[in-house]
């Protein structure tokens, strides 16, 4: 039997950020890689659905293994938890809390993390990651705050007409780099806003991004709209940006 105990030689700090923009305390999970040293500096991955990225995506264990076994660059991960009752309202571009959430991310979360941890502050050293609507809000954050973000991991992003209209407003996205994963079984996905063909929506959005010169790594693989699929594919996404 393999000894996986070394994969737990990392630190996860549970924290809470008081947000005046959201009018609440927002739980955070901060992953510090093996060998963490405050005198060094690290790239940082900001994950929407923080609790799920850690519990179902197993990002801490996965990243530790990649650092120890595959020479991946050590990184800090910031998981931003979400109240599922507000998730669509915050993550969907038309949601009533969407603008406030994006402002919170840029104006409260980043300064908070950067004042406490040795994360690099160049936009190329910040990675936004999200699944489904988490991928949507990650892309919109990059589009709305291009001086802060230019790299996105989208796991089966929920990209609909409103996102494509937003992309059309841009003249040139050659500064944007996005890793897009979609499962070929995601043709009939029920959501709060109806049932959608995520394969079609991602292919369309891929074309729109391509037309604006974004740098794209686009992958279609057999898989469903579930963490069981995303967890298996997460190492490839991490390798893409940190390998």
TrEMBL record:
InterPro entries: AB_hydrolase_fold (IPR029058), Esterase-like (IPR000801), Mycobacterial_A85_antigen (IPR050583). It comes from Paenibacillus allorhizoplanae. This is Endo-1,4-beta-xylanase Z. Gene3D superfamilies: alpha/beta hydrolase. Keywords: Glycosidase, Hydrolase. GO terms for molecular function: endo-1,4-beta-xylanase activity. Its EC number is 3.2.1.8.
């Amino acid at each position: 039997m393999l000894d996986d105990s070394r994969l737990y030689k990392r630190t996860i700090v549970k924290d809470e950020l008081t947000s005046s923009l959201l009018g609440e305390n927002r739980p955070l999970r901060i992953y510090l890689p093996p060998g963490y040293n405050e005198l060094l500096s690290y790239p940082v991955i900001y994950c929407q659905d923080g609790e799920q990225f850690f519990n179902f995506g197993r990002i801490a264990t996965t990243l530790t293994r990649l650092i120890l076994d595959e020479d991946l660059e050590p990184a800090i991960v910031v998981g931003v938890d979400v109240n599922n009752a507000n998730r669509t309202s915050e993550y969907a571009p038309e949601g009533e809390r969407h603008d406030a959430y994006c402002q919170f991310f840029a104006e409260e979360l980043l300064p908070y993390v950067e004042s406490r941890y040795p994360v690099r502050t160049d936009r190329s050293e910040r990675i936004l990651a999200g699944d489904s609507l988490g991928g949507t809000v990650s892309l919109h954050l990059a589009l709305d705050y291009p001086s802060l973000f230019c790299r996105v991991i989208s796991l089966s992003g929920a990209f609909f007409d409103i996102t494509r209209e937003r992309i059309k407003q841009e003249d040139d996205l050659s500064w944007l780099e996005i890793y897009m994963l979609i499962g070929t079984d995601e043709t009939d996905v029920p959501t709060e806003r109806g049932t959608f063909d995520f394969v079609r929506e991602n292919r369309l959005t891929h074309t729109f991004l391509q037309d604006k010169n974004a740098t794209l790594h686009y992958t279609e693989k057999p898989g469903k709209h579930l963490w069981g699929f995303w967890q298996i594919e997460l190492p490839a996404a991490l390798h893409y940006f940190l390998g």
